[in-house]
Specification:
The protein is mostly helical. Helices cover 43% and strands 9% of the residues. The protein has a three-stranded antiparallel beta sheet, with no helix packed on it.
Length: 111
């Protein structure tokens, strides 16, 4: 069993191949997958705010005002007012001169 295909076949036979599943409905503590209710242990929605009505309404207002997408890199076309406000608020809260927003933890780790 030296080949990559053999290793994949072995994983498949053992039921260890990961599969992408389609979640029906919103991301919540209890998900519906393939018609079955499942408890979600891998969520990034730690505070349970992903489906909070006030946040959904705020997102709708932001989409109506700013649209979708940044248009280009912030260094090329500038960043949005909400991002500037977030960075300013974070800097003040942490008592730093400036703060820089990264869209993901991965990007922040890349620096």
């Amino acid at each position: 069993m030296n080949s990559f295909e053999d290793k994949l076949r072995s994983l498949h036979e053992q039921g260890l191949m990961r599969q992408r599943r389609t979640v029906e409905g919103p991301q919540e503590a209890v998900l519906t997958v393939d018609g079955q209710k499942l408890l979600a242990f891998a969520s990034n929605d730690y505070l349970g705010l992903a489906n909070h009505p006030d946040l959904i309404q705020a997102a709708h207002r932001a989409l109506d005002h700013f649209g979708v997408g940044a248009g280009a890199s912030a260094l090329i076309s500038g960043h949005s007012e909400p991002v500037a406000a977030l960075e300013s608020t974070l800097a003040q809260w942490l008592d730093y001169g400036r703060a820089l927003h990264f869209s993901t933890g991965y990007m922040a780790n890349l620096g």
